Amino acid sequence: MAQKYINDGYLVVPEIFDQDTVENIQAEIPKFRDGTYPIQDPLDLVDKDSGLLAVHFPHWVSRPIFETLGHPKIKEVLQIIVGAHIPHWDGRVKCMQSMLFLKPPGFPGQAWHQDERFIPTRDRSLVGVWIALDDATLDNGCLRVIPGSHKMGQLWPTRPHNETEEFDLSDESYGFNSDNEEIVEVKAGSAVFFNGYLLHRSLRNSGDTSRRALVHHYMNSWSNLPWQIGADRLVDAATYDHRMIVPIVGDDPYPERGIEASPDEVFIRPWGDDMEWGDWDA
User: Fold this and answer.
1) Which of 21, 78, 230, 241 could connect to 224 by a Cys-Cys bridge, CB 3.0–4.6 Å?
2) Domain range spanning residue 160?
3) Has residue 276 been placed in a domain?
C-alpha cells in the first residue's frame, strides 16, 4: 500500500464506509439548504435557482461528518501513507479541511489542479481522502488522475480556462503531459487517497444521477500549515501555522500554540446560470 502510494501518488481503498455511514452522511446534505446549519452565503445564491455544487468545512457544523474525520479505516490507511516518504515520521496526523461535493446532473467538474497549491505543506505530506457517497462513474464525472505527477514536488502554473461548460470557475494547471490520465471509477463507500501534488480533475456530470462525495484533507502533524494567509499580511510562511485543525492520530506536537475554534458556519459554493467569473473564489 505504501509503495503504490509513493509510486503513483494515489490509492483506491474499497468499502471505507459501510452503507449505514454513507446514508448518515447523505441525510446531512439537505440540512445545508433548509436552515438547519448556518452558512456563509455573501451572494445570497442558495435561495435562488442556483444549485449547490459544494459545501466547504461541513465538519464545523455537522457532528456526523465531524465523526468521519477519524474513522478507524481512514486512520488505518493514513498511518501507513501520510509520512511513508519521511524517514523518521512518528505517525502523527492532523486534519484541516472537509468538503462536501454534491454535483447534480449537468453540474461541472474541476479542471486539472493540485491541492498543495491551496493547502501548502513543507514535507509533501498532504493527503486528500475522496469518499464516494454515490457510485462515481465515467458518466457522472468521476475523478481522473495523472499517476506519478506528484513525484518531483512541482507546482504547475495556472491560468483561467474557457471551458465553462465542462469545469467550474477555478483556474486550471497547465504545461504538463496528460497522455497517461487514468479514470478512477469507484463504488459508493470507497475512497481515493491522493497526494497533494497529484494532478487530478473531473468532468461535467453528464449522467442522470448526482455524484456526491465527501473529501477530507490530512497532513503530518509536525508540518506547519501556512494557509489562508491574507495578501495584506506579511508573515513568516516557514513557521506560520494556521491552527484550525483536528488531531487525528497522536497528540498535537505544538500544544502551546492552542487550536483555534471554528467559526461555526460553513461556506457554500453555488452554481447556476447567474454565476459569472469572479463571483466565487473557488
Assistant:
1) 241
2) 2-227+236-271
3) no
Domain count, the chain: 1
User: Whose CA is closest to 144, among 108, 171, 180?
Assistant: 180
* Side chain identity at residue 248, one-letter code: I
Asked whether residue 282 is assigned to any structural domain, the reply reads no
Kindly tell me the sign of the dihedral angle through the C-alpha atoms of 199, 158, 178, 201.
positive
Structure confidence by residue, pLDDT tens digits, 35-87: 899 888 655 655 544 578 899 999 999 999 999 999 999 999 999 999 999 99
Is the whole-model pTM more than 0.90?
A: yes
Chain segment 125-179, per-residue pLDDT in tens: 999 999 999 999 999 999 999 999 999 999 999 999 988 889 988 899 999 999 9
CA distances from 224 to 17, 124, 245 (A): 30, 12, 11
In-domain check, residue 260:
yes
On whether residue 160 sits in a domain, the answer given is yes
Q: Which grid cell sits at 242? A: 494556521
